[in-house]
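Possible regression after last week's pipeline update?

I re-ran a chain I had predicted before the update to compare outputs. Posting the input and the new output here so someone can diff against the archived version. Not blocking, just want to make sure nothing changed silently.
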Amino acid sequence: MKIKKLTIILATVSIMFAGASSAFAESTLDIVKKRGHVRCQVGTPSAGFYNLNAKGEWYGLDVAVCQAVAAAIFGDKNKLEIQSVSSQARFTALTNGESDLLSRTATWTMTRDTQLGLDFLPPHFYDGQGFTVRKDSGITSALQLKGAKICVTTGTTNELNMTDFSRANNLKISNVTFEDWNIRDDTYLKGGCDAVTGDKSSMAANIAAFPNPSEHMILPETISKEPLAAAVRHGDNKWTDLVRWSIFTMINAEELGITSANVDEMRANSKNVSVRRLLGVEGNIHKGMGLTKDWAYDIIKQVGNYGENYEAYIGSGKLAIGIPRKGTLNELWTNGGLMYSPPMR
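New output (post-update):
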């Protein structure tokens, strides 16, 4: 009888504590609203994705994701604190609550998704890893890198991908690792490595900043899949939903032909029910996320659709790194790419 009674008491206390815990638990959205801004993590400045202008303001494709989330919550894309974090500390800073959101050319992998306490969101850029060499090296294929010393940033998927590529092709490549990609590239330029490896988009941006860009080239092989995606802490479904659908809003807006320039006209005059629903003219798609009816309108008006941001920062804009979108996986699904939004209804 005593054992049975003790069991009942412990079970009751357990239920009480569980109830108290759930009662006082706050979602990231609640915390962000009370704080008054989003803490969004990027890396050290990287052209195209997260860079600084002369005024010290951040811009880029990954920054646009941060801005979209801030616009959805506050109606103001500038309600935002951008945190520049090293590759080694990035996931820890997110899981321990220092950052609300990570948006920084991070590759979605199975181990990261299942072992680090993270949830990855829809990829907003599809990339792949390659190699940069000097044109006068005579190397025209990655398969000619046998015995080469390759500069690579540690704490990234690039390091493991290169090791796998070397083993699969019996190249006996030597990794020369760096925590800072600026030091990595400087070592390569000074002759400390035969080549440098990384995501092709970032290497294209880096080459453009070399003293003599025309002396270098990216080899044709792509040795990995690099779906670059934002990430949040695992288990906070309300916050995950908000970030996920903020990204989908940018993609869906492009699908529907809504831009930052025409969004007011579309909201006032469009008869398309999908447009009207997205822009809050009818329906109630906002209710499940605890946002106002204008949440998607604010994203599009202040940040723009996906295509606008791609061209501004990756494609042909003044601040872009010059990677054409046509024919790539980053095209809309209607143009043969992988950019696709589920129905927003």
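Follow-up from reviewer: compared with the archived run. The mean pLDDT is 91. Marking as no regression found.
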